[in-house]
Amino acid sequence: MVTTESVTIKVPVGMSKYLVTINPEAELTRNALLLYPYILDQTISHGRAAEILGIRKSELIDLYDKLGYSYFDMIMDDLDNEMNTFRELKKKGEAV
User: Fold this and answer.
1) Distance of CA 26 to the CA centre of its chain
2) pLDDT at 94 over 70
3) 20, 30, 39, 40: most buried, per Cβ within 10 A?
4) What letter would DSSP give residue 95?
5) CA 72 – CA 88 distance, rounded (Å)
6) pTM of the model
């Protein structure tokens, strides 16, 4: 079990009723979403966020994936370009 503490945050009036803890899964999702901007700006890693939340990194990645936040930030075209570059360098015998 993760040690918790209460904090006060300012939110718009209409938002406060949605922040009341309904169940542990909703609380985990809310807290993961609160950490996401810090992962995005690389203040913390997925692993550190998972550690803070008391779950495995793979569980956090799955949670974000279900919410539509991809672990990988490349689109398929970018990945294809990277793979083509890798193949070309490999053909030329360059160190990759």
Assistant:
1) 16
2) no
3) 39
4) -
5) 23
6) 0.71
Burial class (CB in 10 A: 0-12, 13-18, 19+), 50: buried
Contact 69, 29 (CB under 8 A): no
pLDDT score, position 73: 65
The pLDDT tens digits of the residues spanning 33-88 come to 999 999 999 999 999 999 999 999 999 999 999 999 888 766 777 778 888 888 98
Cβ atoms of residues 88 and 96 within 8 Å? no
Cβ burial of 59 (10 Å; 0-12, 13-18, 19+) is middle
71 neighbors 65 (Cβ within 8 angstroms): yes
